[in-house]
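Data deposition worksheet. Section B asks for the primary sequence of the deposited chain exactly as it was used as input, without tags or linkers unless they were present during the calculation. Section C holds the resulting structure in token form. Section D is free text for depositor observations; keep each observation to a single sentence. Incomplete worksheets are returned to the depositor.
Section A, Depositor: J.P.
Section B:
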Amino acid sequence: MGVLSAIKTSVGKHSASHTATHIVPRKVKFDWSHTPLEWIPGSPFASHFINEINTILPAGEFWFCRLYNKALPLITDDKLREDVQMFIRQEAMHARAHGSAIAEYLQSHHIDTERNTKIMDWLFDEALADAPLGVNVPKFLEKRWLIIRLGLIATIEHMTCVLGNYVLENKAWDKAGADPVLLDLLRWHGAEEVEHRSVAFDLYQHLGGDYLSRYYLSLVAVPMILGLWVDGAAHIMSQDEQYKSKKPSVFKPWVWLQWAKESKSGHLPHPLWLIAQQVSYFSPWYNPVTEGSTEEALAYLATSPAAKRATEMAAKPVAAAAS
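Section C:
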């Protein structure tokens, strides 16, 4: 029995869900008081580049939650509805965790994050809102506009699964003596992305998302993600004395070439590798189940310091009630 068949058997032959397990939200907290700005020793470029993820994610993940709450009444499959509800809770926690990294970590190191977060707020609160740029969508197109945005999320979630696998498998950071708190943030988040990797695509298909749309939505989402990442990282680097003279910008080749160069150390994925990982998403037979291992994700979550603390805290009220 193949992987897909096994999962279909476990969740029901006619279920729209390909998530065999029950997704678990984890209320994590991180102590940023000892995390240095250069959290990968000897790799300031990679440190800044990955730190930019903290300013990219919160607005987008809260946007995911708003759209998924809007989609919930349209779901007719019980297991998929449960998946989506748990996905919302996980994504909200991701947004809060990265938000704490902005307020308690980056800003404590005197990094100006306002410019980057304002761009993300505009994108998700204005350009991709229910009324994009203040223009009301005609009633008969409201569901279509919702499905288009759910398709963007499905594309983004494919990339976050790719990055989730990357952070779970990356040992170069450990060898370099990277900060354990930031590593745990990345790996906890990455593991949950792998854990819920099927939900966005399942929902998109369940509500009528079509194969052809995956192409043009990917052509929008992938360049958008890469451009926003490089643009925000360049802004953070411009605040570092060792990079100021370079005048980093998304429009200058230096940042892109340095990204490719830094990838040789194993501290960053190569940009062309990231783009290549999108190829499987274009297949008519694409299924997120084959894009990662739930077992590996759950194995990390069982050892993650933040996830273990969250589990212990959740168990305390239950133990108190039983005693």
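Section D:
Confidence is low (pLDDT under 50) at residues 1-10.
Residues 161 and 193 are 5 Å apart (CA to CA).
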